[in-house]
Amino acid sequence: MTKNFEVEEFNPILSDVHCNLKFTLESQPYTNINNVKTVEKQVIKWNNNKQDKFVKFVKEKKSEGIRDIETILDKLIDRNDTVQQTDIDTAMNKICEIFNSSSISVFGTKCKNQKYAKHNEKPWYKRGCKSKRNLFHQARQRYGNLKSKENKKALKEASKSYKKELNRSYNDFQMNTAKDLRKLAKSDPKRLWQKLNSINTNKSNSIFKRLSPDGVIEDNSDIDLTKVPPENINRILNSPITEEEILNVVKKLKNNKASGYDGIVNEHILNIQLRKC
Question: This protein's superkingdom (predicted)?
Fold first, then answer.
């Protein structure tokens, strides 16, 4: 329930034209019986030192689940054209359950790190800014206790002074940084480049390099696709994916890659042979 809705007095530090809205939310009393703080757990996806134990666990403890998956896949192959998305999802969920539950049993879990945002930790936010902020809060508190013209004027002046100090401190920081870089360029270019290289600007460039590596781009503009017989195109596109093609792709998987929403990492697939061909 919302009560005591009102428009507060103008606060110049928050807005140049708008005023705060003040209201109270009321609800029924609630008693928290369980005061135990829950910590979010994160599954350890892989540990190279325990890969043999992981493989052994899957083959011994999950053999029944693997047989269930084989049965489901055999039925899907027999049905062929009548396979539904729900059937594929069922098979995938069982595969994910085997890998994820095995990871928990073998590798365990860890507490997920909680990151807290730091306020006013900017390099340009100096002692003068903190001092002006304290003066502004004091002026606002005095005006809140006694809404007189003098206190309102003092609040506006404290607000302007705080904003002015913020701008001055930020501009000084920018200017001093530029001066330091110019001095380094003349006195110690090596250190200058170390500072510039410490800025992580190469991350985006590396992405484009991976997308378009040297020597990989081929010019296929001279290929006339209209000369390819249509029956060959249909045969290639509609032919089933062979087991050999899948195994070749699996062999090319790389380690130390993040998992998808299913929680499966490449190491799971590379180290487990669910079905002998």
Answer: Eukaryota
**Secondary structure element (H or E) that encloses residue 203, with its range:** helix 202-211
- The Cβ of residue 168 has, within 10 Å, a number of other Cβ atoms equal to 15
Quick one: pLDDT at residue 33? 54
- Average pLDDT estimate for 153-174: 93
Distance CA 59, CA 45 (A): 18
Q: Please say if the pLDDT value at position 1 is more than 90.
A: no
If we measure between CA atoms, which residue out of 129, 158, 126 comes closest to residue 141? Answer: 158
Across the chain, the runs of DSSP E, i.e. the strands, are 2-10, 19-25, 41-43, 109-111
Nearest partner of 143 among 127, 155, 157, judged by Cα: 155
Q: Report which residue type is found at 15.
A: S
pLDDT for 166 beyond 60: yes
End-to-end Cα, the chain, rounded Å = 66
Residues 251, 240: Cα–Cα separation, whole Å: 20
Return the beta strands (E) in 102-236 as ranges: 109-111
